[in-house]
Amino acid sequence: MADRTGGGRICKVARAKLNLALHVRARRADGYHDLDSVFVHCVDGDEMWAEPADALSLTITGPFGNGLSTGEDNLVMRAARAVSAEYGGDRGAAITLVKNLPLASGIGGGSADAAAAIRLLVSLWDLPDDPDRMSGIAATLGADVAPCLFSWPKHVIGRGEHFTRLGDAAYRDWPVVLVNPGVEVSTGAIFREWDGRDRGGLGDTPRFADVMASGRNDLEAPARALATAIGDAIDALAAQPGAFGARMSGSGATCFALFGSCAERDAAGVAIRRAHPDWWVMETRLS
Ligand code: C5P
Fold first, then answer.
1. Domain residues for 19?
2. From the CB of 9, is ligand 1 less than 6 Å away?
3. Phi, psi (deg, nearest 5) at residue 175
4. Fewer Cβ within 10 Å of end Cβ, the chain: N or C?
5. CATH number at residue 270
6. pLDDT of 170-207, one tens digit each?
7. Which of 35, 191, 193, 251, when mutated, tests ligand 1's pocket best, judged by the most ligand atoms within 8 Å of its CB?
């Protein structure tokens, strides 16, 4: 998450998160599910700007900004308040979120925004850049927020709060296409449709080749059943020359495929846009 400065403003990218694999292991007594997943992060996502101000404020723009509340219930505002509370003092900042990623679509948009807000404000307010402290703040905002603080590939277990860094360099830099067929799916509803069968985990330190060969997304079957367009998106991605690992991310509806080259990725993006002008398509790269 590189800072870009301009006129006292600083910027961070809230990177789109992908689940290269998402194995659901068990329903828990608290209503959540135990997961076993590999998270990777794209170099692109929402953009967040902050500049010094007397009070905290949030402005939302961008293609998916419509209808998002900018009030105290917004996760970015909650993150800002939490940073302020953790480090003491009553600090201000004018925050602008450019919402490029579709909402509630399995690529961690809200969590990545909250994580970016924590990093951005720690930087703007010149606070200690302490990963443990930032992770503690993130954990109070949602299970997926702490993993989104760090852009390295990670093995995630439990509800999403336990994660370890994956050092396998084979995870990095792949050209990737993200496709959202424009259907809204409820995360809770998709989890409720999971068939309850534990099909096994990913092992202690999952390697890229194994995750691509035998990893899966256990929420894909229930999502396909609830929204057939998700299956159409995966099939369209898988049919592109050079595509591999075409899967759904999270509980959907965004799907992705990796590509052997940028040229193949870009050609796939063009072909899918042409065939499905109403779908959201983003060409990017894993970080
Ligand atoms: O974490 P988040 O609030 O986005 O989760 C939305 C819903 O997804 C939860 O209320 C729960 O029904 C389901 N969920 C789950 N197990 C997880 C994560 C989410 O059952 N590990």
1. 4-165
2. no
3. -65, 140
4. C
5. 3.30.70.890
6. 999 999 999 999 998 999 999 999 999 999 999 999 99
7. 191
